[in-house]
Amino acid sequence: MTLTAPELNPPAEVRKGDRWIKRRVSTLDAKRDYVEIVKLTTLFHVDEFFVDWAFTHIMCRATTGHSSKAITREGTGKLVNKADNRFDDTSHHFLVWNEWGPGSPQTTRSVDIINALHSKYQKIYPSAFDDQPLWVYVIAWEVAGIAILAREVLGLPELDDKEKEARSIWGHKLAESFTYTDGTPLSDHMPPLETFEDWIDFVHEYESQPWVPDANSTACANAVLDKFEQRHRWLPRSLARALVTTFWHDGQFECNGIARPTRFWRAAAKNYMRVHMVAMQLRPSPKESMVEKMLRETAERGRTLPPIMRASVGAGVESEDSSGGCPMGFGMVDPDKVHP
Q1: In tens digits, what is the pLDDT along the chain, a chain of 340 residues?
Q2: Which of 22, 61, 78, 35 has the alpha carbon at shortest distance from 331?
Q3: Which of 26, 27, 18 is CA-nearest to residue 45?
Q4: Span between the terminal Cα atoms of the chain, in Å
Q5: Beta-bridge partner residues of 185
Q6: Cα separations in angstroms, 219 against 122, 200, 215, 242, 299
Q7: Alpha-carbon distance 269 to 273, whole Å?
Q8: Cα dist. 86→184, 220, 298, 330 in Å?
Q9: What HEC string does the chain produce?
Q10: Of 126, 127, 139, whose CA–CA distance to 58 is shortest?
Q11: Burial of 151 by CB count in 10 Å (0-12 exposed, 13-18 middle, 19+ buried)?
């Protein structure tokens, strides 16, 4: 399955020149074009390493705390048994949301899969789902998390006002699709996060709460860290781990019982990510998003799309065999059975 020219957002004719993305964003309105702005600023100047890096952060954060019991599931959870697949499945959910935006058939299909998984495991592990702020935190991290790390840890420039406004609107719209434990939209339970700075403040407030050691959280964190190291084994192991833990908040160390990196490896990790992120932005504007490239290459090679992409891109189309996973690690199901 591939994207045809009329389906491209933005259209193919505007994708000309080394800095076409910056030029295109300057013509857009945040309130009206928030989906396109988020796509342009998240899915073009990125690579697979960066997506893996971003995934490790959201997974380590979302699984810090008592919610982790529903993810480890007494050692049977996919995150601790097949972490490699979990990387791809969860990353693809995020890619779908950023490619097509809240409310699209593709994102709706993706979130339907997640809502069904939450409903299933809430019956088995009810206490793991009672942390309402965590639900909001996952959305908030998707809205502002990487921007926080870039600005506050790496000292990189903050986002411009248009991108901030677009991301804030995008986050609210995405939250409308998630179903809270009482069956109502998650957006009904969110605090008044009116500005991008409000999202940032919420992230900091959530992370500053008291944390206690939790064995399930430790198992989840080690599974994610170990898999990140394996997927990037060309890096020294200490650097690979420091590329994640250098950016942890204090509560993650307290809850997971994992050692902080040394001063040397913290400095190395910061310098590595600073150079990598700056280099990505200095490259000429790519003509395809990461998702568009994936769809094109899959079609050209005659291959089958990965499960989440196959289910989401084919929303509303009969699928022979699809399965999906939850960004918080709750497992895999057949989305055709979840949402006929």
Answers
A1: 455 434 678 999 999 999 999 999 999 999 999 999 999 999 999 999 999 999 899 989 988 988 887 787 777 667 767 666 777 788 899 999 999 999 999 999 999 998 888 888 878 888 778 888 898 999 999 999 999 999 999 999 999 999 999 999 999 999 999 988 889 999 999 999 999 999 999 999 999 999 999 999 999 899 999 999 999 999 999 999 999 999 999 999 999 999 999 999 999 999 999 999 999 999 999 999 999 999 999 999 999 888 888 888 887 444 444 344 444 443 334 433 433 2
A2: 78
A3: 18
A4: 21
A5: 179
A6: 20, 28, 6, 18, 38
A7: 6
A8: 27, 12, 20, 10
A9: CCCCHHHCCCCHHHCCCCCHHHHHHHCCCCCCCHHHHHHHHHCCCCCHHHHHHHHHHHHHHHCCCHHHHHHHCCCCCHHHHCHHHHHHHHHHHHHHHHHHCCCCHHHHHHHHHHHHHHHHHHHHCHHHHCCHHHHHHHHHHHHHHHHHHHHHHCCCCCCCHHHHHHHHHHHHHHHCCCECCCCCEHHHHCCCCCCHHHHHHHHHHHHCCCCCCCHHHHHHHHHHHHHHHHHCCCCCHHHHHHHHHCCCCHHHHHHHCCCCCCHHHHHHHHHHHHHHHHHHHHCCCCCCCHHHHHHHHHHHCCCCCCHHHHHHHCCCCCCCCCCEECCCCCCEECHHHHCC
A10: 139
A11: middle
Q: Which pair of structure tokens corresponds to residue 264? A: 């040397």
Q: How far is CA 161 from the centre of its chain?
A: 22
Residue carrying the six token digits 């196959």: 310
Handedness of CA 259, 86, 117, 185 (dihedral sign): positive
Residue 69 structure tokens? 């019991």
Could you tell me if 39 and 289 are in contact, meaning their C-beta atoms sit under 8 angstroms apart?
yes
- 62 CA to centre of own chain: 11
pTM of the model: 0.89
Residue 161: C-alpha distances to residues 153, 166, 279 (Å): 20, 9, 22
